[in-house]
Amino acid sequence: MTPAEMEARIVRYGDLVPCKTAFIDAHTPGSDQKENFTIIGGGVSESPDQHVHIKDTPGFNIGAAGQPPKCRNSLHSHRTAEVFFVLKGRWRFFWGRWGKAGEVTLEEGDIFNIPTGIFRGFENIGTDYGMIMAILGGDDAGGGVLWAPQVIEDAKDHGLVLGENGKLYDSKKGQKLPDGVGPMPLLADDVLARMPEPTTGEVVPRYVARYWDMMALSDRAPAPVIGPDAMLVDKPGFDVDFISHTTPVEEQAMDSHHVLMPMRGHWRLDYDGGSVVLNPGDTCAVPPGLRHSVTPSMSGEASMFRVRSNDDPAGPTWVG
Question: Domain AraC-type arabinose-binding/dimerisation spans what residues (predicted)?
Fold first, then answer.
């Protein structure tokens, strides 16, 4: 692989293109300052304005959310896995029909494999602009977002309507639903009644891994974070490993797609054809069969997440 070909497979943090109108709550006060990023794959954005950095998917999607302090993402659900790790800031995640079933606070480097099939939301509770990186199961990320009914109702008061085709229409811009396209129907009461309401005690021990625990477990080999025999035993359609500056990672060629996502420090990626440095917030898609190795490019703390494709289905993840 040539250096130019490899660079085309890297999305730099500083090159990320945000979309501020990605979802139905884009005009709703309290959520109207959030930014959505689609890094690998189309993700679940509802806006034609969304920029997609790398369109080809390796069996999962990679995205990100950036928000200033006190900005929140409204309650929604997915049909496939949704995994977040905190790149910058301090975040509160909450879940349930009204967002009151449970909650957890995540610090930088913590990872949360949010159970599929429950409403979830999150907000930046730090003092600066924050960023969380996301992994979504499946090539098409489950076909979209399921919103809590009150989110759709609130959005109408601020000019946004979601069509049954999954696209947003902004009445403030003179847009309206096309002929033959109705509004997205609200979830029926019987569907809402079947959605689980797990408590904090049920969710956190099984679905949250803390940064310093992963650092401790990665001293001799990559620490399995999500997957069979991992810290968070699950089959969301991909595996997640954690690599730190003390992890010996030998040169290898994997038979699956995988994505490198540095958390802290600078990493040198040596591959058959060249060498490149990856920085925190960068995303690098390594193709199957490419011989490569990763090592910290300088002394000090360094860590990264490695996401690998597998043959598992893309969800669900919640087992009550």
Answer: 252-299
